[in-house]
Design a protein that fits this description.
The protein is built from 10 helices and 7 strands. The protein is α/β, with parallel strands linked by helices and 316 residues long. It has a 7-stranded mixed β-sheet, with helices on both faces.
Length: 316
């Protein structure tokens, strides 16, 4: 699909029939004032409340509006990945949540920050208009993620972001990894910034936040930390644990052998069983590292390059 616009606004939506039309109209008005070629791409994530039908009614009346409907609810990461892949914007991709809590009037300011030298700009909802049972877990999540990854931004999971096109093309999203897009981008060498944005209370529909997503998010944090480490070789991670267990088990077995020689007999002792278990664990961890390394060796050629080539003399 040829790309013929400068800015794509990607809106992942799941059961947002009550707010999607107002959001589309506001977003279209803001983009019209920018005076740039643009499109609005809605990715309906298997909604059951008629969200797709509401968007389809506006196609033809709102300039540049397009709709993609996923056959089932695949999650926000899958919806964003689909939007990135199918969007036509050559320069920038803007993402907004479909619940009307993000304010489209902030788009020009977000673009200006991105154009000032950043590759990805994430919104920061300093005054978040959500209930306490949503704000408190989010605050803990952001603090832990910032501490664990070393990236000093306030709001990792804000759906309002501006990407340069190559950044969006370089991301691989699945599971709950949309929560860690700034971390993934930083790992690939992109410059990540943030801008404070307005946040409105939800007026329609229900929040998709739940305890299961909170738990899944922290499990994915372990994955992101592993992927973001300097030594990302699986063999280095699992192999070091394996060598530690194996060495401890061997030393304990030598100790038990010395007791056998001195006492001329060896009874089954808990320490002996523990030493044998450590040896088995060590072998298993090293084997896991070797298997993971072979799988990673197959996947590495598919990763996006982490470099950029400057044009040579005479090239445009």
């Amino acid at each position: 699909m040829s790309r013929s616009v400068e800015i794509s606004v990607v809106i992942p939506a799941f059961n947002e029939a009550g707010s999607i039309c107002v959001l589309l109209e506001k977003t279209s008005d803001v983009l019209a004032r920018l005076g740039r070629s643009q499109e609005i791409l809605v990715v309906d994530d298997g909604s059951t409340d008629g969200t797709a039908a509401r968007v389809e009614e506006r196609i033809g009346t709102i300039p540049g509006l397009r709709l993609i409907v996923l056959r089932t609810n695949c999650g926000k990461s899958a919806a964003l990945a689909t939007g990135f892949r199918e969007s036509r914007g050559d320069a920038y991709i803007v993402t907004l949540d479909g619940d009307l809590q993000d304010d489209p009037e902030e788009i020009p300011g977000m673009l200006a920050v991105c154009e000032s030298g950043y590759d990805l700009v994430s919104g920061w909802k300093r005054r978040r208009r959500d209930p306490l049972n949503k704000r408190l877990p989010s605050r803990v999540f952001n603090l832990v993620t910032s501490w664990a990854t070393g990236i000093k931004i306030h709001d990792f999971n804000c759906g309002f972001k501006v990407y340069r096109r190559p950044v969006a093309d370089s991301l691989t999203l699945h599971g709950e990894l949309h929560r860690y897009i700034p971390v993934l981008a930083h790992r690939l060498g992109w410059r990540v910034g943030e801008k404070e944005v307005l946040h409105h209370p939800r007026l329609h529909g229900r929040s998709k936040f739940g305890s299961s997503r909170f738990v899944n998010g922290f499990l994915d944090l372990l994955l992101v930390m592993f992927l973001s480490g300097r030594h990302r070789s699986p063999l280095h991670v699992f192999g070091r644990l394996g060598v530690l267990f194996l060495a401890a088990g061997i030393l304990l077995n030598f100790y038990m052998a010395a007791i056998w020689v001195i006492e001329s007999k060896l009874r089954v002792r808990p320490l002996l069983l523990f030493a044998v278990i450590l040896v088995i664990l060590g072998i298993q961890f090293i084997s896991m590292g070797l298997l993971a390394e072979m799988i990673a060796a197959i996947e590495r050629p598919r990763e996006a390059p982490i470099y950029k080539r400057l044009p040579e003399e005479g090239e445009p």
